[in-house]
Fold each of these.
Amino acid sequence: MQQRIGVFVCHCGTNIAATVDVSAVAAALGREPGVVFARDYQYMCSQAGQDMIKDAIKEYKLTGIVVCSCSPRMHEATFRKTAAAAGINPYMVEIANIREQCSWIHKDKDEGTEKAIILGRAAIAKVCLNVPLTAGEIPVTKRALVIGGGIAGIQTALDIADAGFEVDIVEKKPTIGGKMAQLDKTFPTLDCAACILTPKMVDAGQNEKIHIYSYSEVVSVGGFVGNFTVQIKKKARYVDETKCTGCGLCTEKCPVKNVPNEFNLGMDTRHAVYIPFAQAVPKVATIDPNYCLMLKNGKCGLCSKLCGAGAINYKQEDEIIENKYGAIVAATGYNPISMDKFDEFAYSQSKDVITSLEFERLMNAAGPTGGVLLRPSDNEHPKTIVFVQCVGSRCSADAGKGKEYCSKICCMYTAKHAMLTREKYPDTDVYVFYIDVRTPGKNFDEFYRRAAEQYGVHYIKGMVGKVSPEGKKLKVRGSDLIADKQLHIDADLVVLAAAIEPDKTARPLATMLTASMDTNDFFTEAHPKLRPVESPTAGVFLSGCCQGPKDIPETVAQAGAAASKVIGLLCHDKLTANPCVAHSDEWMCNGCSSCENVCPYHAITYVEKEFRMPDRTTKIRRVASVNPAVCQGCGACTVACPSGAMDLFGFSGKQISAEVDAICR
Amino acid sequence: MKFLYYPGCTLKNKAKDLDIYARESALKLGFELIEVDEFQCCGGVFTTANDEIATKLASVRALKAAKAAGVPLVTVCSACHNVIKQTNYAMKNDAEFADKVNRYINDGDDYHGEAEVYHYLEVLRDIIGFDKIKEKCNGALKGKKIGAYYGCLLLRPSSVMGFDDPENPRIIEDMIKAAGAAPVIYGERNECCGGYAALEEPALVKKRCGIIDESAKAAGAEALVTACPLCRYNLVKNGANVPVLYFTELLHKALSEEI
């Protein structure tokens, strides 16, 4: 049947119209073979624009349409719906992206117009070969997985469970709680972090819908939205979680007591068998295989003798668990960057130069000093403290160290540290060196001003150039840009607000999830403004600092948003499948397995099938078979297939060739 | 083991000790320094003006000599090292600059940073090895507390010099240790002495040198060692309480047969 194509050229206000002569594009495309209608309009996505498309479809009996507008990621779905409402198959719609790929990147109007016409021509060539497609349905597994058990992961899991769905948390540490569990007070209200976090940890631990896999890691992810298959490695903790009562007897009696305590950032020690902190969830002991005498050389076994519950099991091994999920939330969090490359601040040269997270532990009642601020070198009370902000943040790209972005949380926590220090120890002089003080949050600027104005914290605009240990003092040299002076301060303690970066596990996880990341290893959102908690990969959602630096209020808000997106997905019994999937021409297939080997979704299998040959004999041949419910339409198989048997609905070899021909005409 | 050696002019008059002990220690450690034929002054400063080549030609000629000889170029003076290393970097990475230089020299053999440049300390660390040096030392310096004074030119710009961590270097301390003495770490060891400001603003240099001297003294240093004639000149001229030696003198003392 002869196609009757309609072309709709959008101005997108001035976004397109400023660099592309839209009426010339409509006129030129109107002359293309098969095109029976072409028109430009200011906002094609508006109600009026869509109505224009619908009317044209009916009036001109259009069989397919081309919309020259923004990226298909923006509005392809919109225009498909419009087409369907007017009675044509939604897959008879093609988008020519003349905004992101044309008007936004060109300055010269003639060039832009020419390119827009070429892109439109290609889309017309393709739509002429489109065939109506019908989307199938896929079932949804009503269970979610949250990767990371910090405040982001906990809040997401609680909100999902609240809606009645099962949710699993995978946490690599022996307990959930994350960084927030290590904090002392939280800005801007100064409530104690543990007081507001631990009830949530307990809720998560006791919630019937939530299952926590602590001391565990995700090792593989297969499947797709609604139907993920995930393998979780439960690392051997050498303690039976179901038997351990968390009494802590083993952790007191264990003879190995010189293990650096990671919860206190190595500022004190723990035993080889340990519970990270008093409010740990699950409150279960873990044996550190790197230090346990029994595990290392088979001598000791004291904890096993002491344990009344018989929970110790030195023979425990890593266990792989496979579960099915409908949705996955990444909540892998952050870490402060290493201070290795910032030795101008003498972090490696003096114990009294510490990071802000270490300062949190020094101020925390459950920390290594019991909440008394003592300097690490000699346990004396520091009288002069210098805080340095932006250490490793906002670095220039060619500095060869640090991060280009602002870590966002440091201004506020440094104000908090300064204020708390002055509150607890009014005899202490506190200096804060800053590049800018950034406090855009509810009650944030008031908080910072209180530190500077009421608590007498000396805020100095400028950067510290060098810290050098001289005897018991730390000589701090910095510039005061407002007074235009070089400052020399003899400090007792220097606190570095180290930049934060995504956790190292995020990158391999992103690969498993086929979720995209930016150059800093933060997960990329589907749209930076309009879809901030979704990954571009369907069924994968983002919560907390794995998407970008953020404080607790923002993290909790994003966690809730991610949860609501998960709930929205899990509410469906079935999802509409993507009909643009691969299919194989069984007569052309030579059974070579190339497609099976390249398929990242394991959607292709081979079957033995009986064929009736032209000479009326029958023959059993081995041919490829695509499972359309699993295929994601990536097209890898169509490229790998040597015989040309594999093709993709909606993106057939013929259609692509037609597009190329139209461009090169 | 042979190297082409670029002593620089200061080592031929004011800083003879730096030169003499470098050559003698080299012989004791089993490597030979062959002086660049008719070397010219490096200019003393690597000018950041990138639109002129005149002050960098002498360095390029020395580098070309090393390329022709097929051996690395070794320097010992901090300033020469800084200028030559930065010039080599520019010849390798700045095509426009290299093109200008090559057109000017125009001897049919274009240069694009092929030669390797080592500071004498880098030869000790990376080629000879401090462990080997330790074996040859006599123990005469046992218990001596020596501070390393780096100054700026050896360390910065660190991305070009690639010498050591500019904020927390250790190469001279490692040499002091290998020589049998005890290195003293003090805060000002990688700070600037004031350099050529001695000509324009002697008071500033006096202040800088005073701070360095005091810091070293407070940390208990009995002597300082440096690789820079200008640093030594400034420190001594401004009345350092702690004696300032060239690192090669210390090395030579440790390698000498008589104790």
Note: The first strand of chain A starts at residue 5 and ends at 10.
Amino acid sequence: MNGFAANDGDLVAEGLACRRGERLVFSGLHCVLPAGGALLLTGANGSGKSTLLRLLATLLAPEAGTIAWDGVRIGDDLAAYRARLHYVGHLDAVKPALAVRETLTFWTGLRGVQVSSVDAALATFGLDAIADWPCRWLSAGQKRRLALARLVAAPAALWLLDEPTAALDADGERRLIASIEAHRAAGGRVMMATHQALPLADTQVLALEDFAPATAVPFAFTP
Amino acid sequence: MTPYLRLFRREVRLAFRQGGEIGLALGFFVLAVVLFPLGVGPEAEILRRIGAGIVWVAALLAAVLSLDRLFAADHADGGLDLLALSAMPLEGAVVAKCAAHWATTGLPLAILSPLLGLLVGLDARSIALLAVGLLLGTPALSLLGAIAAALTLGARRPGVLSSLIVLPLYLPVLIFGAGAVEAGIAGGGARPHLLLLGAFSLGALPLAPIAAAAALRQALD
């Protein structure tokens, strides 16, 4: 185990292994994420941080191992699990032809919830002044803020964030950290891949190197 | 508003705003039909005989031309991940996207077809059969096209590859669509042809989204 004992209500991954193509990225991975917890994924490029996040987001299937939340395997009710998570990956899912508010309203509405909190979410990330701009006018950092605004526009217990601070300025980073801390204070969980030391309180660290398979290249690669 | 309706509205809005998306397919459709009289000569009798076939082939090609906008942009910008995690099953998202694709491609093609029917010298009854046939058959073009568009995500030349995949699947639509007009000209009943066209679209409605969603899940990997 990873040094944490699992309690009722925890999100627990056990014995996870993931293969991308011919390459085994990691194996035997354990982690526990309690309510209010923040788990930072660290590791070199290619060590499987994004892969683990996509695995937890059910966008990839594990080679081995199980993920369970409160004792229930996530595969048993995939739709319910997906409704409880937010995934913000490297890509921002922003269409140049849509306006900022339209984009957030659309993605929030797609979760099947009320979209009344869209303007508040835009304000949380400082986008309220440009809510009617078409997204083709946005900079990379503003697109990132828009992607992050999805987190607060619709509530979800688990946030899976892949390098969320990429392209963010100092103000954006402050807003993100404030949102994460508010989310955790309300019992939410965060799992985040990051290379930056973020001023988050009471975090756990999962070093992906600890679960790297013994042989990185199991066969001779001939291009 | 349900997620399905939301997705449908966004797709239609995107097609209208990204100017040219609709215009491109329609322009191609018109131009391809106009080229034929120049190529085979202006004899009215020849044109009337092959007119319906020309319009149908041009419609097929125009539909193929517009397939890449179904999933490619969402695949490239990460939207596909979010669609997979949304409150609707991926199959439902495919249906909503196909409906929007039909409303912005197949439907305008059908509406424009009487004009092109006139151009190739079809009589009033043949023009009506052509337009009704296109209305019934074009949903199948969008639905079957979704399979090819999803399968070719990430391929290097997706447009060429998807036309190779999908054009053979379009054959029944072409045969019964052009056949309806021909049967009308020959004095026979066009009804069986039109019924088969409708049946083909209805059959594709539940089956094609299952195949397309399976291909999309592969693309997420």
Note: The longest strand of chain A covers residues 23-33.
Amino acid sequence: MKIPYYPGCTLNTTAKGFDLSARESAQTLGFEMEELEQWNCCGACFPLSPGNVMALAAPAKVLTNARKEGESVTTLCSVCYNVLKRTNVALNEDKARLAAVNDFIEEDYDGSLKVVHMLEVLRDTIGFDKVKEAVMRPLGKLKVGAYYGCMLLRPFKDVGIDRHEGPTIIEDLLTAMGCEAIDFPDKIECCGAHLTMGREDVVEKLSGNVIASAVNRGAEVIVTSCPLCQYNLEKSQESIMETNAGHKEVPIIYFTQLLGLSLGQTDEMAGLDGNKFDIRPLLKERGV
Amino acid sequence: MKMNINKDEIQSYAIEQLERISGEATKNCYQCGNCTGGCPVSYEMDIAPSKIIRMLQIGKIEAVKAANTMWLCVGCLQCHSRCPKSVSVASVLDALRQATFRSGADHIDVKEIPVSFLKNTPQQAIVCGFRKFVS
């Protein structure tokens, strides 16, 4: 089974481990993530004011090209998922807007593409029970905090991957992988996102809150599905370690990397070298 | 704090334009404060999210434009998610940024961004930052 796949700009550069581990995991689970032949950046933020039609052009172009290759497109990055899915909703709910965007990008997109996240593929197409059966290396009750952030969940009306307060889709996957999923209060809070451009102080505070919230509940690892969350949390943790000698470092990795390891992938296949905080010493400590 | 309220400011073109761009009706807000309670960056804002809406209800758009609030909104949508009246303060702040950009004013000078930042930061942060801060 082949699934049309949109990587987005960041998975080709700073988040290569996310891309690699997802593709390898898909192979093990019996499907192939086939990269779209033609794609461009989604724009990295959905225009929140409906009067800003121009900002829909880039994501609409992605949707148009994806529709030419199939009925659905799968993403990994939470932001790409949010932008593409919301753009699709915005174009479908207002035909005049769809016509204006089509005129601008010189296409004839009809709004019929389905945008899905890899988590949905694993839950709804493959099934977490099948994932559980495929696990070759149960991760020894590793205590893992599932960090959702914003873009995977909100707004519920347009995105709807899971409940926007108290989601469990990542925890359910972690449980299937043999980990102990840790619920923590800040799992749906923002990391500071693009404020990393110019307001690192805010990012450090917000991401620091997320890390502290997870650690206080006992998390030893934090998983995410967003390259910007991953970057902000890693960078903030570096600052925390400079000022707090007692802080025990927490690997911040993509859920696909942990999935890959549980499916028996090598460290290279799981793209572990790209992470600032290495999970391997912890795995060794637990004997897995 | 004493403040003069007048009809001309409440019915100004700027307020009308803001509601048109944002698609939000500020009068729907009854000031419960959930948005400010949910906002992760409100601690750093000159005017908190719920107060932004109140200021717009009484026509004080110039004070709202002068505040740092629109440049600190991360667009996480906790305000919208928790609003009992489905008002999206994030959309109002986005519209304020759009109106500012239409006047040709940028929030940051691209030339001043360090090259090391552009080399090491995820593309999505750079693209998103440009869209939020530059016309």
Note: Residues 107-135 of chain B form one domain.
